[in-house]
Design a protein that fits this description.
The protein is an alpha/beta fold and 144 residues long. The structure holds ligand CA2. Ligand CA2 binds next to loops.
Length: 144
């Protein structure tokens, strides 16, 4: 079966435990369960992981080449700062969709910039957990 890597960046392990007014009460375990169930529905295995380290995200993107058909990534705050993550997506050429729980364009100015968006196929933001599922659908459509 085809395979999607769903990759999560810093602080997303705290989802549902802090700032529910911004990120809601959904936990990362809820996101994982929804992605795995959606993967079954659309015919993809889902590998799901989270790291608080920039280099961990870079290494996971490198390792995805030849292992997964594509990546759905919420790089958290590294979205707005990390040239290394952008370069990892450019250099591996693994089709990647950027997702965010919140609408980053409706928030502080520093969240409006995404280095990752330069390398990603596209970006989905503002739909909570559903952003991940829409990201998976977008990846599937891109790969078809
Ligand atoms: O909206 C998103 O998905 C973000 O990627 C979430 C990041 C933020 O830095 C981005 O600008 C947008 C934050 C990750 C989660 O941070 C938490 C903080 C407190 C409680 C729970 C999660």
């Amino acid at each position: 079966m085809s395979s999607i890597l769903v990759l999560n960046g810093p602080n997303l392990n705290l989802l549902g435990q802090r700032q529910p007014e911004v990120y809601g009460t959904t936990t990362l375990a809820d996101v994982q369960a929804a992605c795995e169930a959606h993967g079954k529905n659309i015919g993809y295995d889902v590998a799901f992981s989270q790291t608080n380290f920039e280099g961990g995200l870079v290494e996971a993107i490198h390792a995805a080449r030849g292992t997964h058909d594509g990546i759905v990534i919420n790089a958290g705050a590294y979205t707005h700062t990390s040239i290394a993550i952008m370069d990892a997506v450019f250099s591996t050429q693994v089709p990647t969709v950027e997702v965010h729980l919140s609408n980053i364009h409706a928030r502080e100015d520093f969240r409006h910039t995404s280095y990752l968006a330069r390398a990603a196929i596209g970006q989905i933001a503002g739909f909570g957990l559903t952003s991940y599922l829409l990201g998976m659908d977008a990846l599937k459509a891109h790969l078809a």
